Amino acid sequence: MTEQSLVHEAAVCGSMILDSGVITGVLTVLPDSGYFENRAAATVFDAIVALHRENRLIDLIVLRDYLAAKKQLAVVGGVDFLMRTAESTPSAVNAVYYAKKVKERYIARQLQALTSQTTGDDGTLAERMNILSRDLRELQGQLDADGENQSKTEQLQGVFDSEIAGRRKSLPMPWEGLHWYTRAFLPGTVTMLCGNVGASKSLMAMQLFAHYAESGVKTALYELEEDTPFHLRRALAQKTGLSALTYPEGVSELSCAVPGIMSDNADFLQKMGKVLFDAKNQQTHEQIGQWINDRAHCGCRLIGVDPITAAVSNGKPWIADNAFLQNVKGIAVRYGCSILFITHPTKSMMYPDVNQIAGSSAFSRFAQTIVWLESHDTKNSMIKSCCGSSQSEHTRTLHVLKARNSSGGGLRLAYHFDPASLCVSEIGIIVKKR
Question: What is the pTM of this model?
Answer without folding.
Answer: 0.66
